[in-house]
Design brief:
This protein is of the alpha/beta class and about 400 residues long. It folds into two domains: about 5-245, Aspartate Aminotransferase, domain 2 (3-Layer(aba) Sandwich), CATH 3.40.640; about 250-385, Aspartate Aminotransferase, domain 1. The chain is about 35% helix and about 15% strand. The chain has 13 helices and twelve strands. The chain has helices spanning about 15-25, 35-50, 60-70, 90-95, 115-120, 140-145, 200-210, 235-245, 250-270, 300-310, 345-350, 365-375, 380-385, and strands at about 55-60, 80-85, 100-105, 125-130, 150-155, 165, 165-170, 175-180, 190-195, 270-275, 285-290, 355-360. The strands form three sheets. A seven-stranded mixed beta sheet has the order 1-9-8-5-4-2-3, with helices on both faces. Helix 4 (about 90-95) links the parallel strand 2 (about 80-85) and strand 3. Helix 2 (about 35-50) packs parallel to helix 8, helix 3 (about 60-70) packs across helix 7 and helix 5 runs parallel beside helix 6 (about 140-145). It is globular and about 70 Å long. The chain starts with 15 loop residues before the first helix and ends with a helix.
Length: about 400
């Protein structure tokens, strides 16, 4: 059976004002911006969105991570602690800088990095902690800071508008890196932005990734030459496309959270467990990822559950983060084989294969929510088949 519908199709992401914003850059012949103008406006606007002092725009979220790591001081031979539950694209910048990644375990409830696992992984070579906020759930930053004073870099690619202890999560870290790529919660097609409260770190990121912007835009650095890294600056069209979306994002976030929580509530009634959120924090949704309740689905394989849902038109996606990071193909590449220090991650090994992944629609009609309820009311037949 084909999928009942495209859950994402009920919300118009790119609106007329976004198109007009891009057309304006064409009319004004803004085909490349080194400094000032639209770039300065975008960086100021996104920094305000993240409640930080400074923003530095990049051509992708991955590029923002590369510049952030370099700004923190990550170099060849250093180690960076990451969560084993994550995306290999976020560790590629570490490998590019010659650093070794050290995957740590995840929290079984929030799916975020486990602070105790961080504590056990730190060595004299550890330069930074790279903190994922999976699917829009903030990590427990206070708990992380209790075990280490090392610099924290947040991967906020899924977490536009998420808050930790009442503030945007970027306030909890040295640098937060946002992806505004295709299908992200705010999108420029290909775009990223790193935000920080530190003028020194802002300057260091410009120095690494903004050729011809350095040295003129540097405020704290006495460097008088050009940038020293790759050219990572964004295209004006991407920033123009994203700017109006930032303005209306609060409205979108309300709809997104309401819809996804309604879906989670239905699934929780029928043997699934939603991600937990740290106390006094709020999440957003880039995907809905649910654990399979073993007491309900004992003996039923994950594949069987996914197949049942797909056959009834619920758009289940692949498990994006399985296998775990240390076992990804990126480490089969000859240059990378020595750049991972494998550790034991028993929680992630047990939990991740027993999850299902759904899209995170901004809106869904009430009849679609009822259809989901009707389908899940029949999922118990899987356990009946096992009993037979």
């Amino acid at each position: 059976m084909q999928l009942h519908n495209n859950w994402q199709g009920h919300y118009t992401e790119i609106q007329e004002e976004d198109k007009l914003s891009v057309l304006k850059t064409i009319d004004e012949n803004q085909l490349s911006i080194v400094s000032g103008g639209l770039m300065a406006r975008f960086e100021k606007r996104f920094a305000k969105f993240a409640a930080t002092n400074y923003g530095v725009a990049f051509n992708s979220g991955t590029s923002s991570i590369l510049a952030a790591l370099w700004a923190i001081g990550v170099r060849q031979g250093d180690e960076v602690i990451v969560c084993s539950y994550g995306f290999e694209g976020t560790i590629a910048p570490m490998l590019t800088l010659g650093a070794t990644i050290v995957p740590c375990d995840m929290n079984a409830d929030t799916f975020t990095i486990d602070p105790e696992s961080i504590k056990n992984a730190i060595t004299e070579k550890t330069k930074a902690i790279f903190v994922h906020n999976p699917w829009g759930v903030p990590a427990d930053y206070d708990a992380i800071k209790e075990v280490t004073a090392l610099p924290l870099i947040a991967d906020a690619a899924h977490a536009h508008g998420a808050t930790y202890k009442g503030e945007p999560l970027a306030k909890a870290v040295a640098i937060a890196c946002y992806s505004l790529g295709l299908n992200k919660l705010i999108t420029g097609g290909e775009l990223g932005c790193a935000v920080t409260d530190s003028l020194e770190l802002r300057d260091a990121m410009i120095l690494y990734g903004h050729i011809n912007r350095a040295p003129m835009d540097l405020k704290t650095n006495e460097w008088t030459g050009n940038a020293v890294g790759l050219k990572l600056r964004p295209h004006p069209f991407a920033m123009a496309l994203a700017m109006p979306q930032i303005k209306r994002y609060d409205e979108k976030k309300i709809l997104l959270v309401e819809t996804c929580q309604a879906i989670e509530t239905i699934f929780e009634k029928h043997g699934f467990i939603a991600q937990a959120v740290p106390e006094n924090s709020t999440r957003v949704y880039w995907r809905i990822v649910l654990k399979i309740e073993e007491t309900v689905f004992k003996g039923v394989t994950t594949d069987s559950i996914e197949s049942f849902l797909k056959e009834h038109g619920i758009p289940v996606e692949k498990n994006h983060y399985w296998p775990l990071l240390a076992d990804r193909k990126i480490f089969d590449w000859e240059d990378n084989q020595s750049l991972v220090r494998k550790t034991n991650t028993p929680t992630a090994t047990a939990v991740v294969p027993r999850t299902i992944t759904l899209p995170a629609p901004v809106v869904l009609p009430s009849e679609e929510l009822q259809r989901i309820e009707n389908i899940l009311s029949k999922i118990h037949t899987l356990t009946e088949n096992i009993a037979v």
